[in-house]
Amino acid sequence: MWAKRAVFGAVTALSLAAAVMPAAAQDRMVFGMEIGARFNVPQCAPREGSYPARRCFKESAAAAKAWEGYEYHVYLPSAGTPAYVRGELIVSVIDSIVESVHINTWGFEAQHGAFTALKKQFDEPTRVSFKAGQNASRSRYRAQSAEWVFSDFTVTFEGVTGSIDWGLIKVSTHRYTKLMNDYGKRK
Fold this sequence. Notes:
187 residues; alpha+beta; two-stranded antiparallel sheet; 3 helices
């Protein structure tokens, strides 16, 4: 009888410990930059072109913003960059901390690959929606949108934005989202 109680007590204690332990930290990395961490991307060398051999930002593309932050255009090496990425990343930094990363995509043709990569990294989205669209030549398409909401950041995916050839992935802290909403209200 005593052994059964001891085993039952141990199993109960382990169950309770597992229930109150925090969940594993969500992957906050976006092309080598961690959302909510220090911006540590090096500046591009003067002779590096639009597709450098390493991830870097160009000084000429860094801009101070009215909301007390900076935007950096971060260039990625062509080797290892997913096919759905269109051009450089736009990284918003406040007090040296990465608050948001905007990734342009190739729109409708890339939306499946981009969405699949996001699901692999962030699991099932919180919300998914589809919208019918039509391009200038009257071809119909189905644009996909999704959102992943976590405790301290959100991932937003728009398979098609203003044009069938453009899409967007935005990974932002809640602090950044609030700051942008407040700034928009003041304008």
